[in-house]
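seq:
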Amino acid sequence: MAAMASHQSIATRQSHGYIGKSALHQDCGNISMKLFRGGSFEPLKREGYCCSKRSCGSIQASSSSYQNSANNPILAQSSSTIKDPSKKSSEAALILIRHGESLWNEKNLFTGCVDVPLTKKGVEEAIEAGKRISNIPIDMIYTSALIRAQMTAMLAMTQHRRKKVPIVMHDENEQAKAWSQIFSEETKKQCIPVVTAWQLNERMYGELQGLNKQETADKYGKEQVHEWRRSYDIPPPNGESLEMCAERAVAYFKDQIEPQLQQGKNVMIAAHGNSLRSIIMYLDELTSQEVISLELSTGIPMLYIVKEDKYIRRGSPAAPTEAGVYAYTKNLAKYRQKLDEMLH
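struct:
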């Protein structure tokens, strides 16, 4: 796959100040250029970040109770038996993965929030993504509520060298929590909690969902469809704009995921093109004009290092056999070395 061979060039840009109401100072130092469809690169312009014209307030997820280890034994036991050295320096890894190709991607249909599974190619993309991150520590996984993102996360984890088992957390009601309990302490240590959240869902495409993209362009005109798909604040009929998607996705990230990273937990997010574009807009301080041009390939993981309240983009790991990509920090290099010692 051509996308798999894409490497992210690095461009130096400085960013200063605080983002919205976040307590994280975004002085990100060296940051990758944006990768566009077709393999071209364009340097990012710095104009400041704006999540939206409206306030990105906190949104409580239905699974928020699982963020508290006191309420969830798996979270309390999620640390590996290999002592993760990143915890000593408050360093954490953040992995973002757009789901693999879905059945409606293959058919060129607007998918949005329709719950469509992966194609065979999508399954292969998820497995390949897992190989790329197989030496990176993962303590928690967040996915959207849609099956294509959840399949991608689970398939990716089948390739991880640590062989910990991802367990979907259920807190729909007290019975669901009681019935999903694990009673072996040793088993809990070998599990990774998976939190699903609708806030990470794909942008809701309204009346375009299920329509063929080319036929829709022929009916309404290419310019109109392009405006619906790529403008920041213009939604399709009865659907969400990217701005509206960013409000819920970034608010959830700041409220639920960011605290885990600040505690030194290594997090993977498997989600969708628009929800991940929204989060990257926050992490990289992109403007509303920059983010509409940002393209994310299916099944290509992106690694960030979170250290000293900064998000540092490291691009996509090239392959599990290439040790250099895991030497972005001493902690990742040490983690891989300990994996080698344990598993060989």
